[in-house]
Amino acid sequence: MANLSQLMENEVFMAFASYTTIVLSKMMFMSTATAFYRLTRKVFVNPEDCAGFGKGENAKRYLRTDDRVERVRRAHLNDLENIVPFLGIGLLYSLSGPDLSTAILHFRLFVGARIYHTIAYLTPLPQPNRALAFFIGYGVTLSMAYRLLKSKLYL
Amino acid sequence: MANLSQLMENEVFMAFASYTTIVLSKMMFMSTATAFYRLTRKVFVNPEDCAGFGKGENAKRYLRTDDRVERVRRAHLNDLENIVPFLGIGLLYSLSGPDLSTAILHFRLFVGARIYHTIAYLTPLPQPNRALAFFIGYGVTLSMAYRLLKSKLYL
Amino acid sequence: MANLSQLMENEVFMAFASYTTIVLSKMMFMSTATAFYRLTRKVFVNPEDCAGFGKGENAKRYLRTDDRVERVRRAHLNDLENIVPFLGIGLLYSLSGPDLSTAILHFRLFVGARIYHTIAYLTPLPQPNRALAFFIGYGVTLSMAYRLLKSKLYL
């Protein structure tokens, strides 16, 4: 067990664990937001979900799409598409022995950019707010990937 | 190599590895289910996929959507949205030195809930079966995230 | 820090880190491809994204779908569905002490298959090119899952 406690005593790894947990929790919040809008706006996609609102044809009119629900879902999918690379590349980057302050700068920028992306998507804020948030997160992940491949390439 | 064998001798980590492999294999099964329904129901989304069923207009009539295929795809996306946070948070939680029986309870509940979620979605079972399955998995991940941030926060 | 440097001196783990970084970077490229086609073809899904192309009704006509954009998005989602299991199972497999040349064969096949899958999807190449690429990647992940569960099952 010695090496496990050592892993969690490594400051870069602990910082990665904290920021990752925060950004994944934020992503999980999107599921709640989708459920909230589906229930308050009575917009469903599965017949069994709106069975409580009436029988037969009466319930079927709740099987529809809604701009707000679709917007939350797009923001959720964009999170998935960007947080998955951060998770994989960030984990390996953290283990590759980077400088602590550089690593924390990467993690903070990424988490901040993704939170800002969600706000920009759901408000919605005018462009280029969302595009900017997207590219900051994207750039951070690419920067970690570059650092990793430069120092530890083994093909 | 000493520390690697140590990592895999850690019981919490071995349990995490086993349950994660099972739940990810279950998620991969959704791709096969989609392919199965697409082929048996002749429902395709890419023109090149139904080229074998005829030429030109004759093939184009297979480019359609189908309730069952869309249902499997929604179940698959829901898996992705929930298993990705489990993967990240669960890995870090496993490395943070939790109590073995508590950790295994978390992993078992999560994997059980996701398998039940798939059954509830594909059958489909009446609500609140699927909602319950979803919230058990969600709660397990949040519980691990809480434990992690409480013991190892480093921002 | 001793054990961290040991982890990155492990050749299987370094190979996993390199191939994972490459395949995740490839997946991130899909976001750029989507943005490229959205901008060059003027196909948008959010009203705020096409506000620069005109006011009111004039801008609304760019809120549409396009075959090419949808194709890139499907390829991206398929990447997510397949790279997430590779990420989780591959990481645990790398830590389970596999034979170096076997492990590298797995990683190379997977990364090659996913790159070929993207080419086959975006060109598009006639089937069964894409199906073959999909099943090679799928088989590699299942093979690692099998190896992992056989040697390290702990439930």
TrEMBL record, chains A, B, C:
SUPFAM superfamilies hit by this protein: MAPEG domain-like
Keyword Membrane appears in the UniProt entry: yes
GO biological process, one term: cellular response to lipid hydroperoxide
Name this polypeptide is given: Microsomal glutathione S-transferase 1
Subcellular compartments: Endoplasmic reticulum membrane; Mitochondrion outer membrane
Membership in a protein family: Belongs to the MAPEG family.
Keyword vocabulary terms for this entry: Acetylation, Endoplasmic reticulum, Membrane, Mitochondrion, Mitochondrion outer membrane, Transferase, Transmembrane, Transmembrane helix
Enzyme Commission no: 2.5.1.18
Membrane topology per record: Multi-pass membrane protein
GO cellular component, one term: endoplasmic reticulum membrane
Keyword Membrane: yes
PANTHER family per record: MICROSOMAL GLUTATHIONE S-TRANSFERASE 1 (PTHR10689)
Source taxonomy: Eukaryota, Metazoa, Chordata, Craniata, Vertebrata
Matches recorded under InterPro entries: MAPEG-like_dom_sf, Membr-assoc_MAPEG, MGST1-like
GO molecular-function terms, A-Z: glutathione peroxidase activity; glutathione transferase activity
Name of the coding gene: MGST1
Gene3D superfamilies recorded: Membrane associated eicosanoid/glutathione metabolism-like domain
Organism of origin: Bison bison bison (North American plains bison)
Catalytic activity annotation: RX + glutathione = an S-substituted glutathione + a halide anion + H(+)
Subunit details: Homotrimer; The trimer binds only one molecule of glutathione.
Function: Conjugation of reduced glutathione to a wide number of exogenous and endogenous hydrophobic electrophiles.
Pfam families recorded: MAPEG (PF01124)
Transmembrane segments: 12-37, 83-111, 131-149
